[in-house]
Amino acid sequence: MANNEESLCEAARKGDIGKLQSLIDSGADVTYFDKEGLTPLMHAAKHGHAEVVKALLDASAPWNALSPSNLSAGDFAMENGHQAAFDILLNMGIQAELILGTIARKENAKGNSNRDYLEDRVNFSEDKVMDTESKAIMMAWEKPLMEAHAKAICSQGGHILNIGFGMGLVDTAIQQYGPTSHTIIEAHPEVYDRMLQSGWGEKENVKIIFGRWQDVLSQLESYDGIFFDTYGEYYEDMREFHQHLPQLVKPGGIYSFFNGLCGGNPFFHVVYCQLVSLELENLGYSTQLIPLPVKDCLGEEIWEGVRHKYWQLDTYYLPVCQSIDDSE
Q1: Considering its fold, how many domains does the chain have in total?
Q2: Protease as a keyword (predicted)?
């Protein structure tokens, strides 16, 4: 005879809310994984039973649990086109991350953030920059994305700021637009030395500032376009940077960032895209997410020798943020 948890999965699959609720009330484990590796919440999302999804979430079913194929309940709702179930899960994810973000901010205040990376050696090759653990810092496949970012932040002309040089892909693209001034912040000593060797310090309109952005804020002015792409930092660091945007971006200026947030899971990526848009809106910025297909430039051979595939999705959503008062 099936146990309570198997019955819970069955009720979730069928959308039997009455049976499900009585099983929850009798203490059935909403975190249970069945023999397929799926939770009751995943079954409900897969079949589009929005009411059941809500009941399971109310009973503390984990919204971010993953199946053996690395899919969450939100991914199952997305894949099967169940909008109502998807919306409930998306709102749950955003609310949970807003709360957890507060906790992460407190934890991060005690940590070193990107200090370890800055003391690490980096290895340069033709198509990538890697750290000593074979994790990619930046790769050549990002070139079309960086060109699109440069086009967005240079659309007003004027004074441009880029935080994080990496392979110089975005800065090379920015130069093509002939900005009045082009400021680059780079914190890694080896990347900085390589910039100087490559002649970046001799370009007329380029100003290089060596250091962590947190330590050089007093040297910055206000800019018509800003791009943010640092390695070895957390979402919390970008969130901290966003607090300075009102002072750093001129009215009507454009801000963009490398949108690698949760780049290994489609649903978590959507959650974080929405989360960052919401937080920027609270700071007075509207965010457009422009879809760019990247599947064709990401064959398996790209990742040879790379320990962590930091991007596994078919579409990249390029953020273009502008102060709300001036985007009308």
Answers
A1: 2
A2: no
CATH number of the domain residue 79 falls in: 1.25.40.20
Torsion angle of the four alpha carbons 109, 99, 249, 256, in this order, in degrees rounded to the nearest 10: 100
Give the DSSP letter string of 122-144. EEE-SSEEEETTS-EEEEGGGHH
**229 and 81 in a common domain:** no
Q: Are 167 and 90 in the same domain?
A: no
User: Residues 139, 218: one domain?
Assistant: yes
pLDDT reported for residue 102: 53
CATH of the domain at 134: 3.40.50.150
Domain end point (choices 103, 132, 156): 103
**Residue at a domain's end among 103, 132, 149:** 103
Identity of the amino acid at 129: V
User: Which ranges in 120-265 belong to alpha helices (H)?
Assistant: 143-153, 169-175, 189-197, 213-216, 235-242, 245-248
d(C-alpha 112, C-alpha 119), whole Å: 12
User: Do residues 226 and 257 make contact, with C-beta atoms less than 8 angstroms apart?
Assistant: no
pLDDT one-digit tens code per residue, 140-196: 667 888 999 999 999 999 999 999 988 888 999 999 999 999 999 998 888 899 899
Backbone φ and ψ of 158, nearest 5°:
80, -135
Name the amino acid, one letter, at 28. Answer: A
Neighbouring C-beta atoms of residue 185, cutoff 10 Å: 24
Give me the domain span that covers residue 88.
4-103
Round to the nearest angstrom and report the end-to-end CA distance of the chain: 63
Q: Is the pTM of this model over 0.70?
A: yes
Cα separation of 55 and 7, whole Å?
15
